[in-house]
## 1
Amino acid sequence: MGTSSEVSKLHFLLFPFMAHGHMIPTLDMAKLFATKGAKSTILTTPLNSKLFFEKPIKSFNQENPGLEDISIEILNFPCTELGLPEGCENSDFIFSSPDLAKGDLSQKFLLAMKYFEEPLEKVLETTKPDCLVGNMFFPWATKVAEKFGVPRLVFHGTGCFSICASHCIRLHKPYENVASSSELFVIPDLPGDVVITEEQVIEKEEESVMGKFMKGIRESERESFGVLVNSFYELEPDYSDFLKRFVAKRAWLIGPLSLGNRKFEEKAGRGKKASIDEHECLKWLDSKKCESVVYLSFGTMSSFNNEQLIEIAAGLEMSGHDFVWVVNKNGSQGEKEEWLPEGFEEKTKGKGLIIRGWAPQVLILDHQALGGFVTHCGWNSLLEGVAAGLPMVTWPVGAEQFYNEKLVTQVLKTGVSVGVKKLMQVVGDFVSREKVERAVKEVMVGEERRKRAKEFAEMAKNAVKEGGSSEIELNRLMEELKLVKL
Ligand code: UDP
């Protein structure tokens, strides 16, 4: 056994899924662990290390000499041997390539993660961490960790509400008792009488390849040490309790993780390099009135077609509100932009800012000029919007985003739905300009909604402070892990 200080010092091995929505909170988590005196090693591939981790980790270690270092351990990922295109080390590769069959390839990419099983064994054997935080998409990781006596925590990347809603739907299959796929039903057992339709849920195909994969995920989760959630108790108390009682063996809510980024550079440097000068962007926002600008972003995986983008542009113009709109329309740069109505930028000059590519999202959301957030309801974005105190227009596209929408519109009551009917996974169900106009206008004027959104932001900030709910849960987790170590 080591000295008492070695024993009390924990070492986390963090293994994120290779997508922005997982890499970004993983880095935030490593920083959080460092502030608690724990060492973290992030396990990732060469390209992802360069894209996400090298620079910010170097700065973090240099600027915090008193804290435990964060380090990176590289694993190769032989894309072509696994039947993937060369360089396909991140789901962004799939979603930003216009000519790829995104649905098929993303499934193949997900299943290819199994490749890491053996390399992970070797890393665990040599590194001997005190805990493995492995992404949900690595169901085999629980067994591998067990072999070396390492407790495995599961990180879903989403909140308690969607994990619980999905659990209840899988268990009761309520969609089997509706007359049509667009008929609303109440999610059985789930607190709050939340309603949804069959065409918005993803759990229907249990016998498909993905259905079986998801089943494996749930089994591995039950056998794991517990679940780590990027959320905070006050945001979803009923669902946090439900998760701990009925779904996961144990769970710890330790977020919002994005709030650990306090410095300008940290906020500006999250994810990719921004496609706009951050200072210019803030200067533009500085020139706007308080709470007057609406921000639109649809995350890293949704890709709308030209017809939909034209509709968004027209709806925005009709709403009359100032806006910042992030369009990750890769592949069309330098070409004639057929996704913008003729003369749109001239007409909206001074009123609108279009960011083509990557936006410094947290910097923008935190600006006082922001008055509303049109979001695809990816969990990171949603929580960043909550932490910024913004009312939202919900525009879910795929994955668990429809559940996240219901949390915002039916439980928190801080959002307005744009009215998307069905889950489409990548491309998005069509929404007319009139719907965009209506939702943007509505979200910008609702005072009650705004007041509630600000209250949640206050709670979020308190949760991560000393003595706050997330801080307490993290302390508890670390104490438990220290006991296991002993
Ligand atoms: N993000 C960003 N700039 C962009 C687009 C996304 O900083 O232009 C960040 C955003 O702040 C969030 C993450 O990327 O932290 C996206 O995760 P989310 O869960 O919201 O959506 P996903 O892309 O996984 O669907």
## 2
Amino acid sequence: RPHTQGDAQFLEDESTKIFARKVADHYSARSNQTLEEREASPIIHLKKLNNWIKSVLIQLYTRRGDAVLDLACGKGGDLIKWDKAKIGYYVGIDIAEGSIKDCRTRYNGDADHHQRRKKFSFPARLLCGDCYEIRLDKVLADDAPFDICSCQFALHYSWSTEARARRALANVSALLRPGGIFIGTMPDANVIIKKLRQEEGMAFGNSVYWVRFDEEFANKKFKSSSPFGIKYTFHLEDAVDCPEWIVPFHVFQKLAEEYDFELVFAKNSHEFVHEYMKKPEFVELMRRLGALGDGNQDQSTLSPDEWEAAYLYMSFVLRKRGQPDKT
Ligand code: SAM
């Protein structure tokens, strides 16, 4: 029945686009906070912890002079982290027009912004676009290859369909040099599904977040359904209110292998904290960021609800196969 199939395909494409727009509009509408507003946020310590995790990933895998691709860069919250790592070039892309505008302002030196600082020492290109739809190898042909690609708290937005999940990986793979690194942080599907199964209903959460699955997943038997398009709504107080999609990690890893990636590691945020808080330089970084107090290896300054929200996330590092050119 080609006609019906065509319609179904069309409908799927339309709703996928509508959801991508919903996500973009949500992030576009989020305005910049003042320093005072930020410090008063109910998830301020979680935000600081997530910044620490991103900083650790960047410090572990970036070398001076690297060319960096920041997929879903948002308002450019990681620009300073990349500057500290002394990168040579930066390309940032995000689907949210408002976020890219803020990112440009931040890069160009914003007099109103609390982080008054010297200019960034690397040249940058900032673009607005859908990283999971566009062929970035064409758009960025003159900027590639990149040494490192980062996709922080955003890759799960590509798992609405297989085509988008594949486009995301194909884009990163095509733009990284052999041996290049892909780092990211995203929701930990194992934790989310485990928590859902512990509940009677289709939702769970605490004072800072909630997760609600659509009724179509009422049987909670995700193994029998397609690994793509498993949608839930995520609410994180003072941060997110969006449709999101489960990324079953074993499927992600397999798909990544198809695009020439090998897994270096994948760690839940709790495990990540315990592992890297064994290293004095990262304890010191944690102290400076003020996320966990005086270097304790626990959640001392995060509220228990924030610490539970941290458990919803994981970090991954993938390496593009092949040997780097000797220069
Ligand atoms: N990476 C930034 C950070 O860590 O601060 C922003 C993270 S924010 C939680 C998620 C970002 O993903 C938003 O800026 C959003 O606009 C972006 N995003 C979602 N879907 C996207 C897409 N299809 N293409 C590009 N960016 C996307």
